[in-house]
Every structure is written in structure tokens, then in C-alpha cells.
């Protein structure tokens, strides 16, 4: 039986995990992973143990989706208790690291009064000595930055905490993934394996390339009671062939979902903020992993949010990708290096672009341009929009850009000229500061502060300002999380009177009145730029 040649089924979900929690960049980087473990994961689990009925009730309330509530019944309290104990025992070093960071901040706040920081280095907690630089800002307020590259070579980067959870999916619904650890389940296969392992590439190639079942079992160390479930993930039935490489004379853009675009021109393929669906055996037009070309020349990441730097997809397509483009980070405590994250997740050619830096591969040029907003006014630089020029066409891929400074887009127009297509997110009623960044803050914001600093994209006035400046022929509102199957990732489920729908509808009407072709994207669409 193990000698038979098999393919990986197209509906096998592969979730990357760290300490049994769904992985995203801030859980991968050793600069921030321990902080989230202590200030979010352990607190959520302890809250569940103390009052599981509150979590059960909250998770049944659609308005609470995306909140810090575990999606398990109270009967699993014992398992969560064990996970807490296991985490504290196995990650005691990371727990101590998080507390050392807090102690460092408190020491700086108490003792750094504008005089030389040199005497304070000896007061840095021992655990993080040699891993931080102490700094002042221009107003003599103290802070620090991690020497992040060193942390990846330290005991604080723990590959053993990384793993994958595999299960079969036959429907769109998946529970929200960021608030609930993965416990044991008869239909879930846990595999402790570092993300960088090339064995994962071999496995994911098997959606197209058959291998002996015994070979992949041996490669991944599958045996005993896991064998039956693992074998159910494979089939002897060959898949449909990959689509032929696009060789047309025009720029072709395939909207896949959310902020994911496949842009093809002159034999070059670009995939932005990749998120792919699984094949559920129905022909509803969705684009799945198997619908991508065999090679992606560039994957382009706009920013370090879970729905844009999405490792569930990235790891599954890594074997197809020649180069990854990420924005340059500032190096401060909250602004981790996406380049380092990607490299330590096994990507071989990661290009970090500063503002207005470009990459060219005839006939395509990709330029990283500034991206304001959507980061709660924090000093986070690792965010970028992109201008893609190909075959005489100019495309603005704006992700969640918020038009806080209209003059910025006027500068773009002066440099690049009028645009042929603009892709812009308009999730203008985002979560507050604490939803994403709360675990990294050293003091809690007031409620008014928290609500005023949101993860917002552009509203109507801001989006209309971008359109006026860039003077595009076509406008596409995207990155709204409107696809129903994306709720597990975005926690969004719109109704017609929700502000992002109202504001983006106003933009569509505004464009129509100015003879600009405009559309809000919520299902796959093929776009050819004439």
C-alpha cells in the first residue's frame, strides 16, 4: 500500500501553528512572540478556565466574533488547563524573556531622564543583555530596539514550538482562528515541524506531483495511530493540469480574493498578499491553490497584518515562488523585520524594499511607495503600497492605505503619471488599537484613545481624494474581506448599512459620475488592461 503513487487532496487545510496557536509574523519573530504568549494567549486561556460560559456565549454572538474568546465548549476546560501548564513549562524561557522586556521598559521609564544611556546598559535584565540597543527619540524620551538578527540565533527563537495542523474541509465555514488554540481532535493531525523544513515543500508539491505514500510518511515521520488519518489526505486520482503560463500582449489581472491579485505581463507573474481557498468540489469560480501557475516570479507583501502576510497560504506556495518583496522595517520594538520572518520561514530570495525603491524584470517594474494609516499611529514602517508598471500600463496596489495626507498621492501622480488601474481597500471601520497591538503596549490606552486610533482604511472622502490625485481609468475597491469563506481570518460579515459598504458604494457612484469605471470586488474577476 505504501508503494502506491498518490496526490495530496485539494481540500486539505494546512494551518501553521506556534505553541498550538495559529501563526502570523508577530508569533514567528522572537522579538514579539513571547510578548503575545504572555499578554494575550495565556490570558485568554486563563480567562476561559475561569469562566468558560462567558466564552461560549460570546462566541455565539456574531457581534463578538474576533474578540478574545475561545471557541470550545466548557467541557474542554481541562485540556486548556493542561495546555497552560505545558506552555509555561516548555516556554519558561520565553515567559522570562517577556518579563525581562517589561522590566527593561520600567527601568528606562524610571531612570532615563535625558542624560547618557551608557550607565543603564548594566541595568538591562541579564536575559536580554546584548540583544537590545537603548535609544532616545528627539524629545529625549527613552526607548529601545532589539538586535533582531541576533535573536533569531538565540535560544529565544524556538523552532521546536512550530508545527502544522492538517484537516479535511468540505464546507466554507471555519471558526475564527486567532483566538483559539488547536487542541487534539480525531480529525486533526498535528505535526511538529519547523516552517523552514523542505519536507513541507515536498508535501505541497504533491497536489500536482505524485509520490509514493510510504515516502511522504517516512519523510514527515508519520507512523502509528496517525497513519490512518494521514493516508486519508491523499488520492490516486490525478488533478487537473496547471493553467498554462499567460503569454498575452496585454496586462492581465486576476482578482482572487481580499487583497490577493495575480498580475501577469510579458511572462512575469506577481501575486500580492496571497490568500488562497481550498477546492470543495464545486465550481463556483473561486481560485484555489491548484489554479495558480507553476511559477510565481514575485510575491508582494504590503504589511504585517494577519490577513496580508498569511502563512497558511505562503507556506503552501513557497515551492512555486522565486522572490518575495516585503517593506523595510524601522527596527523598533513593535516593527519587526518581515524579511527576517520570511527567511526563517524558508523563503530563499527575500527582497526588502525601502520607500520608492524598485525591482525590475523586463517588462515589469515594481516600486514600493509609502503607505499611511491603518496602523493606529504607531511607529511602524513595514508597510507599503506598490506601483506596478508593465507594457505601458500603471497600476496602484494600495492595500489598506488610508489617505491621511492627500499631497502624498499628488506626488505619486507627478512621478508616475495617470494610472490605468487603482486597487484600494476601504475597510474604514476597523478594530481599535488594542485589538491587534494591545499585547505589545506597556500601558493601556484610555477608551477614548483606543477608539480614536483604529485599523482603518480609507473612507469615501479619503478614497475620492486618491482617485482625484491618481486620475485612474479604472478603480477597484478590494481588501474588504467580503468573501464569506474568509470570516475565519477577518471576522467580518457585512450587511448593507455597515459603514465600509456605505462609504465604498458612495465611491462607486462618485466614479460613475466622473466616467471612471469602478467596481467593488467580492468574487473572482479577470481584468485585462486595454
Notable characteristics:
alpha/beta, Metallo-beta-lactamase, Chain A, seven-stranded mixed beta sheet
How would you characterize the overall build of this protein?
Strand 10 and strand 11 (260-265) form a beta hairpin. The mean pLDDT is 96. The protein has 17 helices and 23 strands. It is 29% helix and 21% strand. It has 530 residues and is α/β, with parallel strands linked by helices. It has three domains: 5-91 and 158-235, no CATH class; 92-151, no CATH class; 251-529, Ribonuclease Z/Hydroxyacylglutathione hydrolase-like (Metallo-beta-lactamase, Chain A, 4-Layer Sandwich). The strands form five sheets. It has a seven-stranded mixed sheet, with helices on one face. It has a seven-stranded mixed sheet with strand order 16-17-18-19-20-21-22, with helices on one face. It has a four-stranded antiparallel sheet with strand order 3-2-6-7, covered by helices on one side.
Lay out the secondary structure:
Blueprint lengths: L4 E4 L3 E7 L2 E2 L2 H4 L4 H18 L1 H8 L17 H14 L1 H20 L20 E5 L5 E5 L1 H4 L10 E7 L20 E4 L5 H8 L5 E2 H8 L6 H5 L2 E2 L15 E7 L2 E6 L2 E5 L23 E5 L10 H7 L3 E7 L10 H7 L5 E4 L4 E4 L2 E6 L15 E6 L2 E5 L9 H10 L4 E5 L7 H5 L9 H6 L7 H11 L3 E5 L8 H4 L8 H15 L3 E4 L4 E5 L1
Parallel strand pairs: 12-13, 13-14, 14-15, 19-20, 20-21, 21-22
Antiparallel strand pairs: 1-8, 1-9, 2-3, 2-6, 4-5, 6-7, 10-11, 10-23, 11-12, 16-17, 17-18, 18-19
Helix pairs in contact: 2-3, 2-4, 2-5, 12-15, 15-17
Amino acid at each position: 500500500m505504501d508503494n502506491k503513487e498518490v496526490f495530496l487532496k485539494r481540500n486539505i487545510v494546512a494551518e501553521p501553528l506556534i505553541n498550538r496557536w495559529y501563526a502570523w509574523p508577530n508569533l514567528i519573530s522572537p522579538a514579539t512572540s513571547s510578548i503575545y504568549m504572555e499578554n494575550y494567549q495565556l490570558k485568554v486561556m486563563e480567562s476561559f478556565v475561569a469562566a468558560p460560559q462567558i466564552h461560549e456565549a460570546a462566541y455565539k454572538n456574531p457581534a463578538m466574533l474576533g474578540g478574545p474568546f475561545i471557541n470550545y465548549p466548557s467541557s474542554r476546560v481541562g485540556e486548556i488547563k493542561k495546555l497552560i501548564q505545558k506552555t509555561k513549562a516548555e516556554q519558561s524561557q520565553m515567559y522570562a524573556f517577556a518579563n525581562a522586556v517589561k522590566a527593561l521598559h520600567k527601568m528606562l521609564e524610571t531612570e532615563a531622564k535625558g542624560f547618557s544611556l551608557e550607565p543603564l546598559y548594566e541595568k538591562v535584565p541579564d536575559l536580554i543583555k546584548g540583544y537590545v540597543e537603548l535609544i532616545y527619540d528627539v524629545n529625549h524620551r527613552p526607548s529601545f530596539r532589539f538586535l533582531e538578527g541576533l535573536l533569531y540565533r538565540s535560544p529565544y527563537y524556538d523552532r521546536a514550538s512550530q508545527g502544522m495542523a492538517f484537516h479535511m474541509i468540505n464546507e466554507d465555514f471555519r471558526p475564527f482562528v486567532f483566538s483559539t488554540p488547536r487542541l487534539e481532535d480525531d480529525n486533526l493531525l498535528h505535526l511538529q515541524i519547523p516552517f523552514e523544513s523542505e519536507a513541507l515543500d515536498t508535501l505541497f508539491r504533491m497536489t500536482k506531483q505524485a509520490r509514493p505514500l510510504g515516502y511522504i510518511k517516512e519523510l514527515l515521520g508519520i507512523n502509528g495511530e496517525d497513519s490512518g488519518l494521514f493516508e486519508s489526505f491523499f488520492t490516486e486520482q490525478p488533478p487537473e493540469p496547471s493553467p498554462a503560463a499567460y503569454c498575452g500582449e496585454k496586462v492581465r489581472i486576476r482578482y482572487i480574493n481580499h487583497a490577493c491579485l495575480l498580475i501577469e505581463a510579458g511572462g512575469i507573474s506577481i501575486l500580492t498578499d496571497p490568500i488562497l481557498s481550498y477546492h470543495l468540489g464545486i465550481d463556483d469560480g473561486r481560485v484555489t491553490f491548484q489554479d495558480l501557475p507553476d511559477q510565481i516570479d514575485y510575491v508582494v507583501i504590503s504589511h504585517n497584518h494577519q490577513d496580508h502576510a498569511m502563512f497558511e497560504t505562503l507556506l503552501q506556495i513557497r515551492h512555486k515562488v522565486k522572490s518575495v518583496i516585503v517593506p523595510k522595517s524601522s527596527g523598533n520594538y513593535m516593527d519587526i523585520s518581515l524579511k527576517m520572518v520570511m527567511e526563517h520561514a524558508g523563503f530563499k530570495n527575500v527582497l526588502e524594499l525601502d520607500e520608492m525603491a524598485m525591482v525590475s524584470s523586463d517588462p515589469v517594474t515594481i516600486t514600493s511607495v509609502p503607505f499611511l494609516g491603518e496602523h493606529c499611529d504607531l511607529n511602524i514602517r513595514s508597510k507599503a503600497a506598490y506601483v506596478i508598471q508593465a507594457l505601458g500600463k500603471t497600476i496602484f496596489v494600495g492595500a489598506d492605505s488610508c489617505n491621511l495626507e492627500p499631497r502624498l498621492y499628488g506626488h505619486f501622480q507627478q512621478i508616475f503619471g495617470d494610472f490605468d488601474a487603482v486597487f484600494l481597500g476601504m475597510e474604514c471601520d476597523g478594530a481599535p488599537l488594542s485589538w491587534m497591538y494591545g499585547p505589545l503596549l506597556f500601558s493601556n490606552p484610555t477608551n477614548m484613545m483606543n477608539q480614536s486610533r483604529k485599523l482603518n482604511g480609507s473612507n469615501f472622502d479619503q478614497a475620492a481624494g486618491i482617485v482625484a490625485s491618481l486620475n485612474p481609468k479604472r478603480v477597484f475597491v478590494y481588501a474588504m474581506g467580503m468573501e464569506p469563506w474568509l470570516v475565519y481570518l477577518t471576522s467580518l460579515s457585512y450587511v448593507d448599512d455597515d459603514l465600509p459598504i456605505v462609504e465604498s458604494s458612495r465611491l462607486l457612484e462618485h466614479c460613475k459620475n466622473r466616467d471612471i469605471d469602478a467596481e467593488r470586488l467580492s468574487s473572482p474577476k479577470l481584468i485585462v488592461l486595454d
